[in-house]
Amino acid sequence: MKTSIFIITILIILTTSLAKHHACNKNDEKALFQIKKSLGDPDIFGSWQNTLDCCEWDYVICSNGRVTQFTIAGNMISGQIPFAISKLTHLNMLIITRTNVSGPVPSFLSKLTNLNYLDLSYNNLTGSIPESFGRLSRNTQHIHLSYNRLTGNVPKSLGYLNFTTIDFSGNQLTGDLSIFFGRNKTIEIARFSENNFEFNLSDMEFPETLSYLDLNHNKIYGSVPATLARLYLAYLNVSYNRLCGKIPQGGDMQKFDKTSYFHNKCLCGLPLPAC
Ligand SMILES: *[C@@H]1O[C@H](CO)[C@@H](O)[C@H](O)[C@H]1NC(C)=O
Ligand SMILES: *[C@@H]1O[C@H](CO)[C@@H](O)[C@H](O)[C@H]1NC(C)=O
Ligand SMILES: *[C@@H]1O[C@H](CO)[C@@H](O)[C@H](O)[C@H]1NC(C)=O
Ligand SMILES: *[C@@H]1O[C@H](CO)[C@@H](O)[C@H](O)[C@H]1NC(C)=O
Ligand SMILES: *[C@@H]1O[C@H](CO)[C@@H](O)[C@H](O)[C@H]1NC(C)=O
Ligand SMILES: *[C@@H]1O[C@H](CO)[C@@H](O)[C@H](O)[C@H]1NC(C)=O
């Protein structure tokens, strides 16, 4: 009697733990092995062995046996971002940051229809932002490409999308940023500092959702639009551009100190000296 209760208890424990644990999907495992191989099988993938379920491997997180998150931060991996990442079809978060990956921002990322969060900042990526990013999934809300060596115009096709966070700072990107703004957009955090953006800011319209706008160190001209004073801004920095004219008075505009506005062509009015 005691033994049968013991066996039943064991069975219950086993079945409940099996139900919770979904084995890693075979296609995902195959894609991960391809990723490891194309990065030259570096030491950091030591746990990526077929003796271990791939949901237990370092740098990945699964949900129901599918790889949903892939994060490499601060490891010295080199080479291009592997194509096999596009085969992780359930990926919703991809972070590769502060590594030595080089080559282009891969256009195949637009195939990842579940991707919500993309962070490729602080790498050694070159070339321009691919036109295919205009076909990124509507699910892609957060895009960080900051501190790489990206050049060229930001593709106009990105303007058809609705992002929550965009961080393109610290590249050599050019073009007009008005495609990301406008009343119907949903952008909240916009970081475009330290690039070569050159456009007239005067007539730009901003959505009510915007709370963080960093445009410092570009070649932006025109004036600071009065529409900005109608927003609830937590952060604003338009310093080191070619702006002119009076800073709009009111709203949150004077909440920021002069370093948010200094080093422009002829901006004036509080918190800068009077016009
Ligand atoms: C970036 O790539 C260049 C050229 O391939 C290389 O010289 C440089 O060391 C790389 N940067 C880093 C941080 O490794
Ligand atoms: C970074 O990548 C470049 C190009 O692949 C390579 O020449 C360089 O040796 C790498 N640097 C390090 C520190 O791995
Ligand atoms: C923005 O929304 C308004 C209505 O709220 C609409 O009339 C207008 O066409 C929209 N503009 C764009 C660019 O989607
Ligand atoms: C962005 O999202 C808002 C709110 O959901 C919507 O009204 C607007 O039309 C969208 N704009 C674009 C360009 O998709
Ligand atoms: C920027 O646009 C405003 C409004 O359309 C215009 O008055 C101004 O002359 C433009 N500034 C420059 C430098 O082109
Ligand atoms: C704005 O950016 C400039 C340039 O990077 C910096 O010196 C200044 O401290 C920034 N101001 C604020 C309020 O962050």
What is the overall pLDDT average?
Answer: 93
SSE succession: HHEEEEEEEEEEEEEEEEE
Examine the coordinates and then state which fold CATH places here, giving the name of the CATH topology: Leucine-rich repeat, LRR (right-handed beta-alpha superhelix)
Find the structural class using helix and strand composition: alpha/beta
Task: Tell me the count of domains.
Answer: 1
State the CATH class: Alpha Beta
Strand content: 15-25%
Given the C-alpha coordinates, what overall shape results?
Answer: elongated
Structure notes:
With 275 residues, the chain is an alpha/beta fold. It has one domain (67-268): Ribonuclease Inhibitor (Leucine-rich repeat, LRR (right-handed beta-alpha superhelix)). The chain is built from 2 helices and 17 strands. The strands form 3 sheets. It has a 9-stranded mixed sheet, with no helix packed on it. It is elongated. One 2-acetamido-2-deoxy-beta-D-glucopyranose binds at residues 160, 162, 184-186. It is found in: Cell envelope; Membrane.
Distinctive features:
275 residues; alpha/beta; LRR_dom_sf; leucine-rich repeat; 12% helix; Leucine-rich repeat-containing N-terminal plant-type domain-containing protein; five-stranded parallel β-sheet; 23% strand; repeat; elongated; Leucine-rich repeat, LRR (right-handed beta-alpha superhelix)
